[in-house]
Structures are given as structure tokens and as C-alpha cells.
Design goal:
single chain; alpha+beta; Beta-Lactamase; Heat Shock Protein 90; five-stranded antiparallel β-sheet; five-stranded mixed β-sheet; 53% helix
């Protein structure tokens, strides 16, 4: 049987409460008893000494033990709170005031007697009770001398057996029982009040635990949760409310992640289907040309064979480029790409990239320029990843810019940042499509077509590479007027 948090807390509270009460009662009784004994012993400290000095049987020494016993009996009748004993210097009991057969011991320890007479040690000082072995009581004592020779001790027990029985009966009388009942009821009411308070304070924890159980049973899907989940106060001073709000936020975050995973999974399925088609097209063409070349090798002329080989190589190159892009995008999405960052002049890198595309721009009759031509600032980045981004952006600009168009790579320093703009006067992108151009496999409807196949992965790769370089690739475009891609890098 499982018990809840409140039940465990209540059991622990009751157990601790009972232990504390037992300890308090025991320590109170013990302290009361010791205080009472100390007070009574100090009050009757000179009793034995006065009896010795005032009584002729004791003043001149003891010779008649029977007469002394009768005297003790008479004194006990007058003071029932006392028991009188006369003991030898070694502690042997010679005579006493009790009835015959009541005294069990024949000797007592004289060390406490000497301690009391010499007033060594703190009160109360207890000595042996001759009527009960192993029991100790407070006493008064005085030495009895015969001339200068110690003859024995007068040993007076304070709180005789009769006194103890009367005290016990008083403790058990009706008034004492009423006081005990009153105290017990008061303590019980206090315990109930504490349990109610604990119930009140632990109720939010129970509600939170129930909510967690319901979420677990719903497999963490918000749409499967019941409507009776607790509502937590965000501005409350109660820490449990804060915990409940954090749990609700976590649940919303998990639900959002479930939706994102579902969307990503759907996008992956579409992407795989599209990529399969893109891979199948150059692969089928490559296979067809190679089969034709193999089956008709003798009947084909030298020019025809060269044409078939060139087309096959072109398809193989397109197929390799597409596969490389797929792998690159997969590595970027899986965060398996490492950076090799270093400090280098960005002007030199841009000059190299522009020089690499100068021939392509000239063949298409497009102007490709770098502004300004000299730019001596250093940046700290991965030069290979940055060159990959610039290469892709410039290649796209050349492909989408018609003849006599302009492509400009402009650099500018803004505070501690270097801004790079890749502008073209190409076909541009419509406002409806510009939000999707960084998605994998997306190609704008007005894309320029050429003889090479394009899977629409280039800009998605550039976006992720710039994210790795702690920058953001932005785009501005107007349909029919051109496009500008830009990003910023920190100056060393």
C-alpha cells in the first residue's frame, strides 16, 4: 500500500510530536523531582544534627539501642515524613524506627553520609534506602561521638515510605486526572491543527503530482489531456505555484517540439521524394547514354562517341554535385561540421572569389565588380566555409542576372562589424516567395534555367553555414529589379 506525501508527513509529525512530548514530560518530571529533593534536603539539612545535640541518648553516645529504637518510633509518629536509623561508622544498621521486617538491608554506604557532613558536592545528595535495595533517597545525617571517638551516625531518610504512598495517591486523585486530561486534549487539538495546516500546505503539491500523472498517462500530448488540470498563479509568492507554472511551460514547450518534429518529419519525406526524383533524372540519362555507347560502339562515328561521352560525364558531374550538396546539408543539420577559424584579410578572399567567376560573368556578358577594390580589414572566421557561401551567392547571381546586368560585391565597416552585400540586377524574387528561399528544395517560380540541374539546396546550405559563423544571411529583393544578399562578420 502506497502512502502519499501528506500521509508520510503526518506520520512523521505525529512520531516527532510524541517523542518531543515524552522527552518534555520526562525532563520536566525529573527536573521537578530534583528541585523538590534539593529544597527538602536543604530545609532538613540540620535535622539530624539538632537531634544529636538535643537528645540525651545521642549526645553522650549510644548505649541503649532498644531505648533509641523507641525514641525513633516516637519521632516517626510525630513526623511521618522521616525514617530514623542509627548506623555504625562502617554503615552497619544498629537500630531504626521502622516496624520489624520492613528493613531489608543490614548495611548502607557511608560515603554519601560523609559527603553531606563535609558538604562536598552539589545538592541533592542521595543515600541508600534500607527498605528497598537499589533505591536512593535524600537524607539528613550527623555524627554521634562518645567523647572524641566516633561511635556512629544518625541517618534520617527524608520522604518515608508512607509519605511516598500518600504523594502517589495525591498525584492520582481526581483533580490531577482532570489537569492531565485537559493537557492531553489541548495537545491533541494542537496536533490536529498542525495536521490541518500541513494538509493545506501540501494540497498544491498533491495537485501538481496528479497533473504530472495525467500528463504521463496522456503520453505528453496536450490534446489528450483532460480539462481539469490545475491553474497555477504566476505572480504568487508560493513556490509550488512557481513549480506548477514551470511544469506548464515545460509541457507547452514539449508540445511545441512535438509539432516541430512532426513538421520536420513531413518536410524530410517531401525532401527525400524530391531528391530521389532529382537523382533519378541524371542517373537515367547517364545510364541511357552509356548503354547506347556500349551497344552501338562499332556503328557510331568518332564525333558521336565523343558527344555521348561528354553528355555522360556532364550527367555524372551533375549527379556528384547533387550528392555532395545532400551530404553537406545533412552534416550541417546534424551539427557534425567543425570550424577551423583563423584571422585573415577579407579583401584578399573576395578578390580571389571574384577572379574565379570573372570568366563566367564575361561569357554571359555580365559586369562583376568589387567595391571598394582595396579593403585591409581582418576578420576571424573559417575561410573555407566563408568562401563556400560567397561562391554559392555569386554563382546564383550570375545565373539569375540577364545579359548586360550588373553584379556588385560591396564591403562596408559598421562599428566593429564588416558588412558584405552581394547585389545583382537580375530577375528578383516576389514578396510571396522571399520567405521560403532558404528552405531546402525551394526554387522561386522565376528562376533562370540553365543546362545544369539545381536541387535548390544552395541557399539552405549558405544559411546554415552563416549560422555556424555566428552571423545571419539576409535577403532583400524586388521582382524584376534584382536581389541583395548580405551578412556581417566581426572585425579582429
Amino acid at each position: 500500500m502506497k502512502i502519499c506525501f501528506y500521509q508520510r508527513l503526518a506520520i512523521a509529525l505525529v512520531a516527532v510530536f510524541m517523542l518531543v512530548m515524552i522527552a518534555c514530560v520526562y525532563s520536566t518530571n525529573l527536573l521537578q523531582k530534583l528541585t523538590q529533593q534539593e529544597a527538602e534536603q536543604k530545609l532538613h539539612l540540620g535535622l539530624a544534627e539538632h537531634l544529636v545535640s538535643d537528645n540525651p541518648l545521642l549526645k553522650e553516645g549510644v548505649y541503649d539501642y532498644e531505648a533509641l529504637g523507641n525514641l525513633f518510633h516516637t519521632l516517626m509518629i510525630l513526623g511521618p515524613n522521616f525514617e530514623f536509623y542509627y548506623v555504625s561508622p562502617k554503615g552497619e544498621i544498629l537500630t531504626y524506627s521502622a516496624k520489624p521486617g520492613k528493613v531489608k538491608a543490614t548495611t548502607i554506604d557511608v560515603a554519601p553520609i560523609k559527603q553531606l557532613i563535609n558538604k562536598k558536592g552539589g545538592f541533592p545528595i542521595v543515600g541508600d534506602d534500607p527498605k528497598k535495595e537499589g533505591v536512593h533517597k535524600i537524607f539528613s545525617a550527623a555524627p554521634v561521638y562518645n567523647n572524641d571517638r566516633l561511635q556512629g551516625y544518625l541517618y534520617v531518610i527524608i520522604g518515608a515510605e508512607q509519605y511516598d504512598s500518600i504523594l502517589t495517591s495525591l498525584k492520582n486523585n481526581q483533580s490531577m486526572r482532570e489537569v492531565a486530561v485537559f493537557m492531553g486534549v489541548g495537545l491533541l487539538l494542537l496536533l490536529v491543527a498542525l495536521l490541518v495546516l500541513f494538509k493545506y500546505f501540501t494540497a498544491p503539491l498533491k495537485r501538481l503530482s496528479n497533473d504530472m500523472q495525467k500528463v504521463r498517462e496522456a503520453d505528453f500530448h496536450r490534446e489528450k489531456l483532460p480539462r481539469d488540470l490545475a491553474v497555477w498563479k504566476r505572480n504568487s509568492a508560493n513556490e509550488v505555484d512557481h513549480l506548477g507554472c514551470a511544469f506548464t511551460d515545460m509541457l507547452s514547450h514539449i508540445d511545441k517540439q512535438f509539432d516541430q518534429l512532426s513538421e520536420i518529419d513531413s518536410q524530410r519525406r517531401v525532401l527525400l521524394a524530391d531528391l530521389s526524383h532529382d537523382l533519378r533524372t541524371p542517373l537515367a540519362s547517364l545510364q541511357g547514354y552509356i548503354e547506347t555507347l556500349a551497344l552501338n560502339e562499332d556503328s557510331l562515328s568518332k564525333e558521336e562517341r565523343k558527344h555521348f561521352v561528354d553528355v555522360s560525364l556532364k550527367n555524372a558531374k551533375n549527379l556528384k554535385h547533387l550528392i555532395d550538396q545532400i551530404f553537406e546539408l545533412a552534416y550541417l543539420e546534424g551539427e557534425q561540421v567543425s570550424l577551423n577559424q583563423e584571422s585573415f584579410p577579407i579583401g584578399e578572399l573576395l578578390h580571389d572569389v571574384v577572379a574565379k567567376f570573372a570568366l563566367d560573368a564575361k561569357q554571359k556578358n555580365v559586369s562583376l565588380s568589387l567595391t571598394p577594390e582595396k579593403f585591409d580589414y581582418y576578420i576571424f572566421a573559417d575561410i573555407g566555409k566563408l568562401e563556400r557561401v560567397l561562391t554559392n551567392l555569386i554563382a546564383n547571381a550570375i545565373r539569375h542576372t540577364p545579359e548586360h546586368g550588373d553584379i556588385e560585391i560591396a564591403l562596408s565597416k559598421q562599428h566593429n562589424k564588416i558588412r558584405v552585400d552581394v547585389r545583382d540586377t537580375g530577375v528578383g524574387i516576389s514578396d510571396k516567395e522571399i520567405a521560403y528561399i532558404f528552405d531546402a528544395r525551394y526554387q522561386a517560380s522565376n528562376s533562370e534555367k540553365d543546362t545544369c540541374s539545381h536541387a535548390g539546396l544552395g541557399l539552405a546550405i549558405c544559411k546554415k553555414l552563416m549560422t555556424l559563423l555566428n552571423s545571419e544571411l539576409k535577403v532583400q529583393s524586388r521582382l524584376g529589379e534584382g536581389t541583395c544578399f548580405s551578412f556581417e562578420l566581426s572585425v579582429v
